[in-house]
User: What shape does this take?
Amino acid sequence: MARKRKLLLFRGDKPLWIIVAALFLVSLLVVYSATAAMAYREVDGNTSYYLFRQARFIMIGFFVIIVVHWIDYKYYARYAKALFQLSVVLVILAYVIGVSLNDAARWLKIPGLGFTFQPSELLKVTLVVVIAQQLGIRQGVIAKIPVLPPLTPGGWGRNPQRSFDIWYKTTRPLILPIVVATLVVLPSNFSTAAILWGTCMIMLMIGRVRQSELNRLTLVAAASCIVIVGGMYAAGVGRAETWVNRVVQFVGPTEAVADDKQSSQDSYQVQQAEIAIASGGVIGKGPGNSTQRSQLPHPYSDFAYAFIIEEYGIVGGIVVFVLYLWIFYRAGLIVRRCNRPSQGLMVLGLSLIVTMQAFVNMAVSVGLMPVTGQPLPLISMGGSSVFFTCVAMGMILGVSRESEREQQEAEARLRRETEPAAGIVPDDGTPAGADVPSPEPESAGPSAEPLRRPLVPVRQRTVDTASEETDGEDNDELTLVEHSDSRDAWADDSRKGRREVVDLMDEQHE
Assistant: This one.
């Protein structure tokens, strides 16, 4: 009788669950201690108010992880584009009717519920899924096709049809979402736009886009950023003046800045963070013994890492740093076990978003970067940041769960096929000691074909109808291997997408 599968609440990568739980515990400790002074100013000295508020966010986040990690990947791929478009609209809407905090319109207030959220958090998650899906579709040919059309009129004139095909079949579905996402986020949040762009560039590099194409993208992006930020600064639009002042103050403190008030505020924040770190020492002052929480701006969010070092010392800071590194390491192991490139690239992108945001917060706290408004993921106080970070962690754990399930099923099928051949449990129920004629090698049919495990060596690649034109080429899959299943609707779309871009391969590769 077949063994029943146990319905476990927490499946997937177990160490990753432990990391998330540890970061949530740190969050409760930090929020409870860091908001003590604010509680006397805002809620009449109720020091447990913010603790229970953050605990509610954490419980909701844990529930979100559990629910999301049980959702099959194909649903992410099916609805990712629609959710990405919705998030772009919501980010633009935040500029019009959003709530402004610290001169930045980043939040939308949900009518009837009384709480706000940042649409850019949803945008980060959906963008990664869209780019991972588009890269996965093109893995068979991405190393041989351009991702940008010619950037000069002369280049378009030499072969207009090919240039249009590159734009329509590669640039528009693969590069345009990155450009749109960074442009809509840029006016209010430069650091988030930079993290998005950097994450996507790493995804393109791991996704086997040619280095020459990445260099073109980087040059175009750098030139465009200088022009856009310079234009915003000259026109006094958005927060360009704040960005320039922060960079100038970071490079070398000077009085030649446009906004003395903002510069003095940033300098004050950095100085208080340095005092908190210096007073923490090796083992810190102990939980609840901070003396800088009254002077340190936002010790529960933007400068949470400096506050952690003050109370828990360099040892506590290293532990938190290692936990975020551990997230990326576990994500890398999940990527190696993934059966489809789009799954692995999605895990890579989501883990990069979380870890890069954490490292930016830490770098600002210790004075290695100009002041930004990036919270510490899963630790800083807030609802939307915790919620969407938990969505990302749930998606990573969901891919891990699917990979483990597929590997277990493959191993079970392998045992069922090898045991009868070894005379352990014959297919026809014949006792193990009975004489069973051995099959002739010549008569081996399709059913006698050895089972191919879903996890294959990294330089092996499967051949499908989408890449028949490249059979004679050395098309090594350096990172991920495509394992298509005709039963999945998204897999059929992937084949179709690969077929339509195969004609864009450069002539020297054809």
